[in-house]
Design brief:
The chain has five helices and twelve strands. By secondary structure, the protein is α+β, with helices and mostly antiparallel strands. It has a domain of about 140 residues: Umud Fragment, subunit A, CATH 2.10.109.10. The strands form two sheets. Strands 1, 2, 3, 4, 9, 10, 11 and 12 form an eight-stranded antiparallel beta sheet that branches. Strands 7-6-5-8 form a four-stranded antiparallel beta sheet, with no helix packed on it.
């Protein structure tokens, strides 16, 4: 018979009490999902890459360049003259998307399978609210004063046009490649509400990397 108090208690097995760490492969799907959600949130609300399919912004932005667009740029500040902005194409019909369609599009854009570009336009802000824009003798005039445009090619040609009166809460935009740009000279000023954001850097190709 065992004497009370002399029985040795068994030591607990540390291996059985220590929480087991999940393997990397078991955690990978969750990590990928988290990264995807973060990418979609960033793309939707903060910054987004845009593909440039046309030559309307030459020589500043070349065909097939990718630029990053700050989507918060005009949440608190108004656009300024010289800003390069991305906006919804006024000629494109507005298509209402369901919530699942928005989610799918955002995911495809976030992972790079789909890119924005053909449904949106990118131009430079030339005229501000309340101003009158006139093009005369190959120069842009703002309220009668010539606009300095060092970003244009020396051989740029502009037909005499105007006057264009910019409405309040709108901007008058033009492409840097004036002979080959579909812009406010054709479709009028752009409301602030249609501005998606301000392009601030070219990210691809690497040879064109740089701020705008």
């Amino acid at each position: 018979m065992e004497t009370p108090g002399t029985h040795e208690q068994e030591e607990p097995d540390e291996s059985s009490t220590r929480p087991r760490r999940r393997s990397f492969w078991a955690e990978l799907p969750g990590l990928l999902l988290t990264a995807l959600v973060i990418a979609v949130v960033i793309k939707t609300f903060l910054v987004q890459p845009f593909w440039i399919p046309s030559e309307s912004m030459l020589p500043t932005i070349e065909v097939n360049d990718r630029v990053m667009v700050n989507k918060l740029a005009f949440n608190w500040d108004e656009p300024e003259r010289g800003d390069i902005v991305v906006f919804r194409d006024p000629a494109e019909p507005r298509v209402e998307e369901s919530i699942p369609e928005v989610v799918v599009r955002s995911v495809l854009e976030a992972v790079g399978i789909r890119t924005r570009g053909r449904d949106d336009l990118i131009k430079r802000v030339i005229g501000l609210p309340g101003e009158t824009v006139v093009i005369v003798e190959n120069h842009v005039m703002i309220d009668g004063s010539p606009l300095s445009e060092p970003y244009l090619s020396l051989d740029v040609i502009m037909a005499d046009e105007g006057p264009f009166v910019v409405g309040f809460g709108e901007v008058f935009v033009m492409g840097d490649n004036r002979q080959f740009s579909f812009d406010s000279r054709r479709f009028g000023s752009i409301p602030y509400d249609d501005l998606i954001g301000r392009a601030f850097i070219t990210i691809w190709p690497i040879s064109n990397f740089g701020s705008l």
